[in-house]
Amino acid sequence: MRASRTQGWPMPTQEPILRGDIMAKAEITRDVMTFWVRGGVLRPIEAPTGVGFKLRFEWYEANIAAIMNQLRILGVSIKGMLSICKVYRDAIAFFDGRGATRDEVHAMWTLDIIERNVIARRVKRAGYRDIVEAPGFDPEKHPRIAEEAADDISMEDELWAEILPWTAEIHGAQKVTLRVMELWQGMPREEFRRHLDPYVTITEQPEASYTSEGVAPPEELTYFWRVGESDDYRFIWGADAGKLARADGAKSMIAIDVSAVLRSVWNSPEGGASA
Hints:
By secondary structure, the chain is mainly α. Helix content is 50%, strand content 6%. The protein has helices at 19-26, 30-39, 61-73, 78-96, 102-133, 143-150, 155-163, 178-185, 189-202, 241-247, 258-266, and strands at 17-18, 56-57, 222-226, 233-237, 254-256. The strands form 2 sheets. The protein has a 3-stranded antiparallel beta sheet, with helices on both faces. The radius of gyration is 23 Å and the shape is elongated.
C-alpha cells in the first residue's frame, strides 16, 4: 500500500471520554449508543450516579464502538458483538492485570520473536548434530552442517546476543528494559500470544500518517467469522487469516480494514454532544 502524509489532529490522551465523544468518533446514533450500553457491548466506568452525572468510558471503548459499528452494519447480532468484545476486554485485563503498558507489551513482543527464533535455531542445530554423528558423514562435503553442529553457544548467551541491540535508546519507549525482561520471565507464553493481537489492536490510537488508495490488501484486513450455528464469533488479522478461518470451519467471513477504522476514530473532529 502506498502512503501519503496528511495533517492529523493532535494525538489524544488516554483519559476517559464521554458518551457523546464516543458517538462522534464511532459515528453511531444516540439510540445505538443507549442500546449498546444497556446490552453490555460498551461498558461505562463504574461511578456513583447523581444530578448532572455523565457516563464516562475508558478511551479504548471508542475503538470497540467503531469496530462494532462496522459489524452492525454488516449484520452481526448483538450476541456476536459481545463475543468479540469479550476477546478484546480479556486481552486488556490480561496485560493490565500484570501492570504492563502498551509499550512494554510491544517490547515483550520483540522478546517473544527472539525467543522463538533462538529455539528454532537450536532445534535445527540439534538436528545437524544427529547428522554429523551418523556413520559415513563427511564434514568436507558438508562444511556448513559441520560448522553449525559444532556451535556450542549456551541458550542464555545466544538469547542475550539477540536481545542486547533492542535495549538501545534508539527503540524509544518500546526498548527492552530490565523491567520488561522481568515481566517476560513470568509471562505465560501461550496466553501472551493469544491476547497479543487483540490487545495491540484495540489499544491503538493511530496517526493519520497516510491515506489508503483503493481497497486494503488481504494481509491488512481483520477477518471475523461465526463458529457453527452459534452467535460466537472469532477473528484474526494477517496474511493467512482467511485461510485459518476456513480451516476453522468458517463458511462465510466478514473482512474489515480495522486500521482504517481506528485512524478515522482518532483523526476526526469531535463534533458530537459531550453528554
